[in-house]
Predict the 3D structure of the following.
Amino acid sequence: MDLGLNGRRAIITGGSRGIGAATAAALHAEGALVAIIGRDAAALAAVAEPIGAHVAVADLATANGVRTAVDSCIAALGGVDVLVNNAGASPNGTIDDITDEQWQHAFDLKVMGYMRCMRSVLPAMRAQRFGRIVNVGGTAGIRATPGYTLAALNAAIVHLTRSTAEHVGRDGISVVSLHPGPTLTDRLRTMLERGAANAGIEIDEFAANVVGKALPLGRVGSAEEVARMIVVLCSDVAAWVTGGGISIDGGAAIGVVGG
């Protein structure tokens, strides 16, 4: 099946590792022209070199960082057809654990960063009356747990996605959210450090035999699996999909939930 991505110009935030890096490679494999944004110049360069991606080093928690990075990517690609908002990581912790400073930084990067990146690409997308935006959140944003209170920001992304989709749909732009569950990336490994230490086993073993086996499908996911779903959502296959959310989580978000 032709996904209609050949020659499409795609910007991926948080593109230096994990889901972002896998998405850059997967979009490139479909013929897309790729630009990646992140804070780690060396890691970005390692991702970009084999796929010929443009690199923009920036802190997307700031308005100036978003503006300069997105402008650089649009100039390098000659426009933009696809935005994958993927930057942002926040620590585990209850409402008692997370400091005001942690709340503010996570909000600036995840919610404000996503909003500013969307706002930055909308003029170009409107002018051509076409665009695909995928906002990567997480199942923790649709299934609350006491130990990850900052997942409230993922819930905000769900609302931001819906409100923006309704606002720009008549301009030919679709906006969807994607909710990955436990995905074996460096970030998940960091989040599982304490549990693995308490269990007295290696982190990857803890992910496979404790976290993964608790899921309906019996395993954690991979960055490549999530990236393939993002590629589909960016493609012509998903041309009539907007506003909602897709869970890719091995069944982690148990219960009746809405995306």
